[in-house]
Amino acid sequence: MDAVFWIVLGVVLAVAEIFTTTLFLIMFGVGAFAAAGAAALGAPVALQAVIFAVVSALSVVVVRPVVRRHARPSLETGEQPFGVEALEGATAVVLEPVDADRGMVKIDGELWTARSYDATRTYAEGERVQVIKVRGATALVWQDDISTPGELPEAKR
C-alpha cells in the first residue's frame, strides 16, 4: 500500500511540473518514485521517507543545475542555434504583404506566416525583412538592413 502512495505522489508531482516548467517539482517526483521502489522492496515507512528526502535533495542540488544549464537558449551559451531558434535573425522575403494582422514570408525556402514586429509597419511583396522572433508558427519580422530585391543600397549606386 505504501508503494501505491509514493507512485501516486510521484505522478501528481510530475503532472504539476508540466504546468510549472520550473524543473523543481519533478525532482521531488523522482524522490517519490525512489521511495516507491523502497516500499516495494519492503522497507519501513521511516526509511521510505528518508529515501524520498535524500533522493529529492540530491536531485535538486546535483541534477537540476545541470539540466537548467543545458536547457538555456543557445544564444546565451554561445552554441550554434538550431530549430526555431536558428530562424531568429534570418533574412526572409515577403510573399504576401505583411502587417500586424497577416502576411506570408519565405525563410530559407520554407513558407511561414508572418506579422510585423512593429504593428505600425507594413511590408510589401518582394521586400526583404529580418525575423526578430518566432511565436508558434508565426515569424515576427522587421525591416532588413539589406536592400530589397531589385534595389541597391546608396553606397552601391
TrEMBL record:
Keyword Lipid metabolism attached: no
Keywords: Hydrolase, Membrane, Protease, Transmembrane, Transmembrane helix
A Pfam family it matches: NfeD
One Gene Ontology term, aspect cellular component: plasma membrane
Superkingdom as given in the UniProt entry: Bacteria
InterPro entries with a match to the protein in the record: Membrane_assoc_protease (IPR052165), NA-bd_OB-fold (IPR012340), NfeD-like_C (IPR002810)
Protein's name in the database: Membrane protein implicated in regulation of membrane protease activity
